[in-house]
Every structure is written in C-alpha cells, then in structure tokens.
Amino acid sequence: MKGRFFDLAKEIARNDKDAEKYAAHLAELFDLILPQRVGEELCSALAERDADRAVSALAAYYRKKPSVAVASLTASGSYSESVADRAVLGQFSVVGVEHTFEGGEVDFLFNPTEEKGPLNHEWLWQLNRHNHFADMARAYTATGDEKYAVAFRRQLLAWIAQTEIPAEWNTPGSAFRTIECGLRLHGAWQVAFDGFRKSDSVDDLTLLLMIASMHRQAVHLVEHPRTGNWLMTESNGLFTFSALFPELSDSESGRALAAKRLLGELEVQLLPDGMQYELSPDYHRVVFQCALSFCQLSIALGKGDEIPDGYRALLKNAANAAILLSTPAQTQPRTNDTFTVSTAACTRGTEAILGDDPVHRYFNTRRAEGTPPTEGNASAYLPYAGLAAMRSDWGPDATYLCFDVGPLGIAHSHQDKLNIHLYKGSTELLYDDGGGQYDKSEARAYALSGYGHNTVLVDGLAQNRSEPRRVTEPIDADWTTSERFDYAFGVYEDGFGPEQLCLARHRREVLFVKPDFFCVTDTLTSRDSLKHDYELLLHMDTESVRPLPELPNAMVAEFGGDSELIVVAIDSLETTPTLSAVSGRETPTLRGWYNGRNDKCLHKATTVARTACGERDWRFTTLLFPVCKGDAYPTVLQNADGTLTVTFKGKTVKIDPLAPKESI
Predict the structure, then answer these.
(1) In 3D, which of 600, 623, 621, 601 has the Cα closest to residue 401?
(2) Whether CATH 2.70.98.70 fits 381-633
(3) CB 293 within 8 Å of CB 236
(4) Whole-angstrom Cα distance, residue 631 to residue 629?
(5) Quick one: DSSP state of residue 105?
(6) Residue 623 contacts by C-beta under 8 Å, 6 or more apart in sequence?
(7) Dihedral over Cα of 194, 200, 201, 204: its sign
(8) Cβ atoms 235, 205 nearer than 8 A
(9) Across the strands, what pairs with 604?
(10) pLDDT tens-place string over residues 311-366
C-alpha cells in the first residue's frame, strides 16, 4: 500500500521530495481509519489492497458527509470578498503589514518584517493561522467560482510541502506553534474542509492529505500541551478535530483528553470573580469562546450530556465578568494586551448552554431586546481582577470609568497599576490603547509602560513591578457604591524605573459624583526621605486640547461630534503646577501617541501632564468633567480649608480631597 500511495502522490507533487512527504501523510491516515465506520466500499477496497478504490471511497464518504450544525465550522456564512480575492493572488495583510507573494506562490515560512521592520514574529505565525482559507471557502460556497478552490488547493499542498514540525516548534519561524495548530483545527481549516470538499478542483488526494495533516497537528497537541489561553485554544482544536472525524481510531481518546483539559483549565484560569487570569479582555474572550465552542459542538453532535458538571457555571461567571466591566459602547475596557473587544463576544451563542438570559440578549441585540443587569446600581467591582467599573447607568450615553487596582496578570501584562479609563457614551475620553502589535518597536515598549498609561512618574521614571501576577484573596479597595457616588482606592508601592528603585508610594483615590464627574486624588509620599519630581499623565485620543480660560488651570479636550472632557487641576492654595499638553513627541522619549492593535494603528494623540518639582510629598487633585458642546461649564471654588465647592449641571457639592469618600 505504501508504495502505491507514493506513486499516486507523485501525480500531485512538484518534485520527488514533496511526493514522499505526501505519501507519508496518506499512509498515516489509512493506518488510522476505521473502515467499518466509513462503509462497505472502503472495507472492500482495503481488503483487496486497491489503493485507487480506497482513496476514491474515503474521499467520497467525506464529500457526502453532512455539515455539522455549528455556524463557525461551516462554509455557509459571512466573509470578506476582499480578503478572499487578495488571497487568491497571494496578497495578505497580517498584523497591519502588507505583503504580496509574486505569482500567488505563497511561502508560508517567509516573514517580510525581517526585511521591512519593525520585526514582528507574529506576521509569520498569524499568516499560518490561515484565516484567509475560511474567507476563500465561504466565497466559493456563495459564488461557485472555482478560482477559490484552485488557489486553496495550491496553497494547501504548498503548506504541507514547505512545513515540518521543527525541533523547537514554539519559536520564531515555526508554522507549528501549538496555538496555531489549535486555531487551524477549530477554525479556518474546518471551514475550508467543509467548503472545498464540494469542489471538483480539489481532488481526492488533496482532500485526504488535508485530513492527514490535521491529524498530525492533533497528535502534536496531544503530546505538547502549553498553558494559559494557548492550552484552551489547543484543546478546543483537538476536541473539534477529534469530534468531527470519529472515523479515526484515536478520535475518542482525543475527545476525552481535550474535554478534561478544557474543564481543568477553566477551573485554573478563571478567577472567583469570573475574569480570566491574564486580565486581558482579548484573552478572556479567547478562553470563553474556546469553552463555549466545546459545548456548542457537543450539543450539535448529540453529546451534550458529556459536558462536565460545573462547566456551565464557570462559563456563566466568565460572561458575567465581561458584562460587569462593559463600557457604554458595549465593549470591554482595554486592560493589558488587547484590542477593542465587544462585550457580546462573551454573551453571544450562549442560549443552548446557559438558557435564554435577558441580560445576554441586552448585549447581543445592542439594547434592542432583553434587560440590563438589575442587581443594585450599575457600578461593579471585581475584587480578584482588581477592576472597578464606575457607571452612571446602563444606557448608551452613560458616564463610565474603569479603575485598575489589580495585579499584573499572568501574561500580556502592562505596567499600569492605578490606571483609569474614561468614557462618555461611546466616546473614549481617557484611553488605554491596549499595547499595539507584538513587534520589536519603541512604540510597543512605550505602550506597555507606565509612560503610556494614566499613571504617575517619579523623577521621570515609570512604575516597574514584577509581582503579583495574580492574587488569591480579594483586593481591599474600600469599594463603596451607592446611588449618589462610587469610591475606590489603590496603592502602588513597588519600584520605579529599570532598577525598580524604591522612591515613593502612590495612593490613588477615585470618587465618582454620580452621574456627572470624577475627583481623582493622587497622594505621593517619599519612601527614601528625599525630594522628588512627581508628574501626573493623562492620555487622550485627540490632538484638539487647549487651555480653558473660564476655569483656572483647566484644559478642554474635543473629540469630534459633541463630546468634550474638561480637566481641572487643583493641588494646593500656594502652588498649582501648570497643565501642559504634548502630541506626537518622538524625542527624547515618546509622548502623545496612541498605539492600538487591529482596530486602531499607531497615531498621534495627546498627553496632558503636570509636574510638582522638588517635593518630598505631594498631592494632585484632578477633576474630570465629561461634557457635551454647549453645556454650561462647571465652577470650582477652592476653600480656605482645602475643600472644593463644585457646581455642575445645577448641583453643588463639597469635596474634601483629603477624605473624598467621607465628604460627599
């Protein structure tokens, strides 16, 4: 049989080396097939050792097999016509970097960022996720245009010929990072298989080579598990392949192992408040969707009773964490490495697993149906993630601030303790950009650091901590929420700068005077008994920031449309450091840049700052007023006793920056 398959493989190969590789794949596949599960024709062909009939019978079985009733795994769905057409021509945009392979001949081991810079190993890795295969398959299903099938066949065979599992598979230049294997097996390759198995342009041998390659990848995942969101992705891929190809002798063991890993990792990775332990909405989404996909496929295959006990409760808690953190734009606040994640990424598709939840429908329909969370008021605190969501209401025009008093997170961490992230409706007024692409650039380093967050510098140095990565007890932020106000505080007392110098203690208190404005009090206390320069940073995604003559030491930022943010700086009766605004600075260090990932690329923004020089201890008090154009500006009076009298939107309140919670 092996010799016969070698001869058949040569017919679709470009050289003997490729033919030998194809033959090895096919031999492995036929060793694994349980012919009685396929049908009499295959059993007869194998008994008579008729390779041609065996290939034909097995391919025919897979071509006629019904599609599984899970939308994400089928070729009937939405797609990008542009991505599909460009992929046919060998044109790709990966991590924001364009590249065209001449003549449409794709080299899956080539990384253009090695030549163009900045170096980004993700370009090759993410190209090898083959997301474009899904667009091509869906374009083929929708149009019947064989150009997609012809290009797919050429690229698939090229990929199998070009790639091997290297000795170090999770390193730069490898197409066999385990996370890519998992993504291919539960994503684009399943969609491509579902679509292109119906095309005469994809011959029988190519179809079987695809299955054989998927099996090799599944074995790779069995033998080499990672941790964190990678292991969830790997396990989802292993389960999906094993469940969809039960004709293989190791499919049942693969399914059982994947299910065990998925449950075990959910129990480890989800904190008691429901947030995934990397504290990134992106990877929270990844873990949630991997866990959900397992349930959806199990139910679609009539095996819903195999979903482990406790699994649904974990899923519901993870969805609830995303709901409680949701911004008025129904997105997630950007903490650690992330792009802008829709809250619905953790509520959509849960009906069959968690039941018809009206809160989930509220997010899935963008408020058209369902109801918002109703327990207590709209604000919430996740005590293990250390994230406080201060929210006026659940409506589209709500005022919202996310305050981070939590640990670093297990991975994808930023130096951003005590960061704040402010919205008015769908407009982001103070941003955390999510850290940009995973490249080797100055902009990436800036976005990860305290220089790129709404934090405090000491002697020009940003915070720099190594621990804790996670906490095992709730974080005491003195969280208080009521109909009138929200309050929380956090403390940073780790190091500053590359040497993690013990310079000062930073205590930040955030008071939300509902529903209109915020008082942020930053108290800096010297830890080495020396005087220091303290600088407060606030980041805004606009270049339209100007002084506001109507208020002393105030600035207004305009965001287009009707949204504005007024920043009022108050420190002491004797001296108030002047506010400054910088956009797009490149030297001596970056300042005033927004470095997003996927949804927004690197562009100029504004950093508003103020510095208290040569002080042993200092307190910054900052008032933040989200307003609409045409609104009456607030009035702020500083009283002789240090308290503030604030009048805004027809209400007057008195605030003591020394004890903000007690004074309101």
Answers:
(1) 623
(2) yes
(3) yes
(4) 6
(5) -
(6) 517, 518, 519, 520, 566, 567, 568, 570, 634, 636, 644, 646
(7) positive
(8) no
(9) 593
(10) 999 999 999 999 999 999 999 999 999 999 999 999 999 999 999 999 999 999 99
Question: Is residue 299 within 8 Å of residue 249, measured between CB atoms?
Answer: no
- State the pairing for strand pair 603-604/593-594: antiparallel
Q: Could you give phi then psi for residue 399, rounded to 5 degrees?
A: -95, 135
H, E, C per residue of 160-207? HHHCCCCCCCCCCCCCCCHHHHHHHHHCHHHHHHHHHCCCCCCCHHHH
Segment 409-443, tens digit of pLDDT: 999 999 999 999 999 999 999 999 999 999 999 99
Dihedral angle, C-alpha 346, 351, 357, 359, nearest 10 °: 30
> What are the extents of the domains in the chain?
246-375, 381-633
Helix and strand element counts for the chain (H, E): 21, 24
Quick one: which of 125, 179, 191 has its CA closest to 152? Answer: 191
SS3 6: helix
Predicted confidence at residue 51, as pLDDT, reads 84
Size of the chain, expressed as the number of residues it contains: 664
Q: What is the pLDDT of residues 604-635, one digit of tens each?
A: 999 999 999 999 999 999 999 999 998 999 99
Give CA–CA dist 546/446, Å, rounded: 24
Listed residue (275, 622, 221) closest to 420, CA to CA: 622
* The dihedral formed by the CA atoms of 328, 542, 413 and 262, expressed in degrees to the nearest 10: 40
Burial of 586 per CB tally in 10 Å (0-12, 13-18, 19+): exposed
Map residue 42 onto helix, strand or coil: helix
The average pLDDT across 100-120 equals 96
**CA-to-CA dists, residue 567 to 264, 328, 403, 557, angstroms:** 47, 21, 17, 8
